[in-house]
Amino acid sequence: MTTESTPAVALRMTGITKSFPGVMALQDVDLEINEGEVHAIVGENGAGKSTLMKILAGFYQPDKGEIEVGGRKAIHWTPREARSRGIGMIYQELNLVPDLSVAENISLGAMPTRGPFVDYRAMNAKADAVLRELDTDIDPGTRLGDLSISQQQLVEIAKVVARQPNVVVFDEPTSSLGDKETRVLFDVITKMRDRGIAIIYISHRLQEVMEIGDRVTVLRDGRHIETRDVAGITPDEMVSLMVGRDLNEMFPKFDLGLGEQVLAIEGASRAGQFDNVTLDVRKHEIVGLAGLVGSGRTEVARALFGLDPLEEGTITLAGKVLKIRSPRQAVAAGIALVPEDRKGQGIIPGLSVRENFTLPVITRITNALLIFLGKERKIVTELADRLKVNPPQVERPLNVFSGGNQQKVVLGKWLLSEPKLLILDEPTRGVDVGAKADIHHIIGEFAQDGGGVLMISSELPELLAVCDRIFVLHEGVIAAEISRADATEESVMRAATGQEVAA
Amino acid sequence: MKNFDFALLGARAVQYRLVIMLVAVAVFGGLSLDDFLTVNTLQSVLDRATVVGFLALGLTPVLIAGQIDLSIGSMMSMAGITTIFMQPVIGNVPAAAAGVAVGILIGAVNALMVVVFKINSLVATLATLLIFASLALLLTNSYPLSSEDPIFGLPLTADFLWILTPRSAIFLIAAVLMFVWLKLTPTGRNLYAVGSDASAATSSGINANGYIAASFVLSGFFAGLAGMMQSLSTAAGSPVAGAVMLIPAITAVVIGGTRLEGGRGSSLATLGGVLALGALTTALEYNGVPSYTQAIYTGLLLILLISLDRIVSGHGGASSRAQRSVRVAPRNTPLPRRNA
Amino acid sequence: MNQLVAPARSLDKSTTPGALFSTLSIPIAILVLVVIGSVASPSFLTVNNLTNVLNANSAVGLIALGMTFVMVSGGLADLSVPANVAMGALVTLGAQESMGTGLAALMGLLVASMGGVVNGILIGYLRINPIIATLGTGSVLLGLSQLLVGGGIVYAQPSALSTFVKSSILGIPVFIWIFIFVALILHPLLARTSFGRWSLAVGGNYQAAQASAVPVRFTKAAAFAMTGFLAGLCGVLLALSNGQARPIIGTGYEFVAITAVVIGGTSVFGGNGSVLRTVGGVLITALIGNLIILLGFPSQATGLITGAIVLGAVGIDAYFRRKAGRL
């Protein structure tokens, strides 16, 4: 901790405002980072942290607001400009080239030369020096793709550190690191801080924030809520600031008697993704699956749907133990999955709404040879009407519709398959408010009609409003099972961040 | 696991395929022919391999950059025709230069299509293959051009340094130079970066488009070189000289181990592939196997190696972007539970 | 993760310039070509000429029909077509004496189909790059076909089947009838069956199709098997009608087929297309070829113009895709 009375400001962002069509990502956010401090930024999924950092990195231009680095205002802010002003970014998604060596990656774009040739000795020495600072024994000559994920992450850090930056942003750096590696990282961060570098540390792991942070800023719903010294705050207080809001949206909730078990998973494991997961869903029930990004929720869903089959554990559907090794088997068994990645796995963009709707069950509306086009059109029109797809033109290609409508089509396509279990992965992400309410309604109706729903969502209010029970995943393991009565944003968040949930 | 030994064996076989092939060919040739394992044969193999060799060399940077160039055969034909045609017009040496220049030009056209018009390299070079093969036929009226000075090109295939000929010497030098460039210079390393992960390369300040464009021009240069040398050696500019060269060139590169997905490859590996393939075809030819049967073996080899490669390296073979894995808490951590 | 919304699209895009272009272009192009033809040469607009043109292009047309499925399902292209054509032709004529024409023709079809199946396995199940795979299999098959006939030429024996193939029904050559027949089967296959729907989905978004329980590998493989069969059929018909066959019989057919499909508006990246459009593309390609001859251009120019058109068509397609946000 520095003892200067007025620490020099390394980075100042003032009045940052950024909106995208349909969403206000950031509103008038101020951020001030001092030299030689570790400044943590915390907030829920969607609070605006990533957007703020992308603006800092030069990838987005803010609608309003200013950036000042080392006292000098930024006029033309591009990624190149940001880099040259000493901003270093370390993302979760590694920016490395798998086929080159560690040393080459560290010096990529700026390799030391001797004449026309690469000065391998200097390059390896530079890499050695940086890696030794990070206290790792990675051989700089190793091909990057051969290293483990955590080792690759260390190389990414080395790459940024080697550029002698003024401000370094760590975005969830420990998500793939073990305890020892986290220690190493903290040592490095401490060393960097003591050398006067300003460090921004973004993390969900509040314990880490308490340990390594000097000050912490809380964002919520795109707004700057508060900045405080870490010494003067507790994790509980942080959680309250992160989630504190009024539930001002009414979600429909049908009060139903719960039926018999539709789905039971026991001891499900997949190495590196989730371990010993046990949960169940009953008829008429909507079960939520909560957890932080990277906690394994999507992986569990994919395993249930046969995209990445289970290595250990059993799946029981309506009383029968099943081996699900492909989406076709899953669909045949009565499971449907609305995927998280709508664009990549949800929609066939060039096909019409109608064709998208009927894709998984197309063989059910054919006679021996041909599709009953008339019947198809009728089914689809009814469905589009029920889902309130807007505009209700089923012949238009799906890519011209808004995200919310696309999501309705994806949802509808699976409803058409008449599943026993409907798995939803972030069903209302990127969806406008109106469509969101519609989708909730549809889910509720499905449960009412006798299906079981397993819903993954990063939006706590949604889960709280819609679910009968919530399982919380933390780092691949079920951390808690919370009933509707006991579920609050705090309790879910606590379990998700790995803290003890008071008995 | 059950299939452990198979997998390991397969991987090793793939790894050492060049050596295996060369040994196999040597054995086969030595057993079936009398004078196969001689210096003369080696010289012959090296010399004949040169033309395909240049094409394969030119193809290597393109593949490393993550693209493909199917037009190398047509570029070669065009270059050959130009060389022979220009001999009486501007003299022998300038004509040779003109031939190479034509290759560079067409390579630039490919670069334009892929980088500026953003046409997939497969489609673009398929189209230029067609266009220039056709143009070659048009310009020569489907007949090969005879050289006005057939003696000029003779020295290319003469004896030179024991097992070499001038043109195979140039080929070997080119292969070594390319190796030096790819492995030891910053631009060479950047090329790998572009092919391995273009966006990561771009974010480190590398001009990915520039490198891709350059790789096509380079491919054109080598195709031009191949065409020029071939036409001088045969004293004729044939409009279809290059048409049959595409598959052997690709096969040689694949045998050598350069992947089609980009980010990996080596000119020395290509050299090895060219030699292995050249040895095989020579051994077959000396055994009286007609060229179309040779094509069968070549094609089978290509398919076999690529299938093996795909099976051994698992699904996709695409450059593996580091997958984020979840840190899973150890099992014996007590799970805090609240009962429903 | 962020709650970022993808920029909402205006809903009026079905009448984008791109869509209009592709819908109207075929009829307009045909019209334009017919006009140019009738102006350029008095013998153009005669029944004789037009029948000949259609007849000559029916063989390639069959291949284009199969290639449609290949491209629609994202298989890029089948470059082994010349080899399969040769196989079909040479096996038919080669086995004619020993088995009789009918059986020999069936053998030819079978062999070519096997080639297509091998392609399908390599590409659909082993996920090998289609260009490399088909180049490889094509090389093997072509070599095999040349081996069969010792590199030379095979002559047909007179037979009832070849007489039939060379004849006309209702004034229209049998060749054309066969083309129409196949087109009539394949169009609904693509437009109105599950398999057709699967093909469009696989080409449109392989991962999403897989996640929608579509049998993706089978679909991709089937397109190549089909093309192999059709190429074989083409070879059989050519052999019987020409009375002879050489291994080079199918040279260049793959490019003409690809051109026809591309001109018809199917994107090389897959996800859209129709057999009807390919028929239009075949017509246009046929007319262009005919015009080249009638206008006195050397026949070698065909490849040049074909390649240029492919570049133009794909370039324009790429342009519109980029404009619409890389759909």
SSE series of chain B: HHHHHHEHHHHEHHH
CATH class of chain B: Mainly Alpha
Percent in strands of chain B: under 5%
Global outline of chain B: globular
CATH class of the largest domain in chain A: Alpha Beta
Lateral arrangement of strands in the main beta sheet of chain B: 1-2
> Beta-strand level of the residues of chain A, as a percent range?
25-35%
By helix and strand content of chain B, what is the structural category?
A: mainly alpha
Label this structure with key terms.
heterotrimer, A: 503 residues, alpha/beta, Rossmann fold, 3 domains, six-stranded mixed β-sheet, 17 helices, 22 strands, 32% helix, globular, B: 340 residues, mainly alpha, ABC transporter involved in vitamin B12 uptake, BtuC, two-stranded antiparallel sheet, 2 strands, 69% helix, disordered C terminus
Itemize the secondary structure elements and their pairings.
The complex is a heterotrimer of chains A (503), B (340) and C (327).
Chain A: E1 9-20, E2 23-34, E3 38-42, H1 49-57, E4 64-69, E5 72-73, H2 79-84, E6 87-90, H3 102-106, E7 113-114, E8 117-118, H4 120-133, H5 149-161, E9 167-171, H6 179-194, E10 198-202, H7 206-212, E11 215-220, E12 223-229, H8 235-243, E13 261-270, E14 274-282, E15 286-291, H9 297-304, E16 312-317, E17 320-322, H10 327-333, E18 335-338, H11 342-346, H12 353-358, H13 373-386, H14 403-415, E19 421-425, H15 433-448, E20 452-456, H16 460-466, E21 469-474, E22 477-483, H17 489-496
Parallel strand pairs in A: 3-10, 3-11, 6-9, 9-10, 15-20, 15-21, 18-19, 19-20
Antiparallel strand pairs in A: 1-2, 1-4, 4-5, 7-8, 11-12, 13-14, 13-16, 16-17, 21-22
Helix pairs in contact in A: 8-17, 14-15
Chain B: H1 4-15, H2 17-32, H3 39-64, H4 72-90, H5 92-116, H6 121-140, E1 145-146, H7 166-184, H8 186-196, H9 198-203, H10 208-234, E2 236-237, H11 246-256, H12 267-286, H13 291-312
Antiparallel strand pairs in B: 1-2
Helix pairs in contact in B: 1-13, 2-12, 3-7, 3-10, 3-11, 3-12, 4-5, 4-6, 4-10, 5-6, 5-10, 7-8, 7-12, 11-12, 11-13
Chain C: H1 17-40, H2 47-72, H3 81-99, H4 101-125, H5 130-148, E1 154-155, H6 160-166, E2 168-169, E3 172-173, H7 174-192, H8 194-204, H9 206-211, H10 216-242, E4 244-245, H11 253-263, H12 275-294, H13 301-323
Antiparallel strand pairs in C: 1-4, 2-3
Helix pairs in contact in C: 1-12, 2-7, 2-10, 2-11, 2-12, 3-4, 3-5, 3-10, 4-5, 4-10, 7-8, 8-10, 11-12, 11-13
